[in-house]
Amino acid sequence: MQVDNKILDDLARVAGGALGAFSSLREEVEGQLRQQFERVLSRMDVVSREEHEAVRAMAAKAREEQELLAERIATLEATVASLATAASTQPLPADHAPVVSESAPAPSVIADPGSKPADAGA
After folding, report:
1. Residue 93 gets which letter from DSSP?
2. Domain range list for the chain
3. Which of 18, 37, 57, 89 is the most exposed place for a label (fewest CB within 10 A)?
4. What single DSSP character describes residue 117?
5. Cβ contacts of residue 55 below 8 Å, gap of 6+?
6. Angle 20-23-24 (CA atoms, 0-180°, nearest 5)?
7. Is the alpha carbon torsion for 29, 33, 39, 40 positive or negative?
8. pLDDT tens track for 38-95
């Protein structure tokens, strides 16, 4: 019985040593793979996690602002529509009616306010 325990102890020691060797081999392979992936990613010109998160936060803020502005526009459009409806249903008072003068002849050509008279440049 004593001999069996000694053999089992030796086998356990050899197996433990092999597992230790495999563990260090695994760590070395992981390190090599990580370096290779980092080299490939650096050549691909991808953004970092921090840059991605910063742009994501900016996009979320822009979306919130756009939704607020859309609500403001809808409110303003409703106000304009209600004012237009109210204005179209109420007649204008007599003192606000357009005045038409029959004594002055109507101009045949209406000048553009931004243009200069023809004789001003000569």
Report:
1. P
2. 8-46, 48-87
3. 89
4. P
5. 47
6. 90
7. positive
8. 888 788 888 889 999 999 999 999 999 999 999 999 999 999 999 988 888 776 666 6
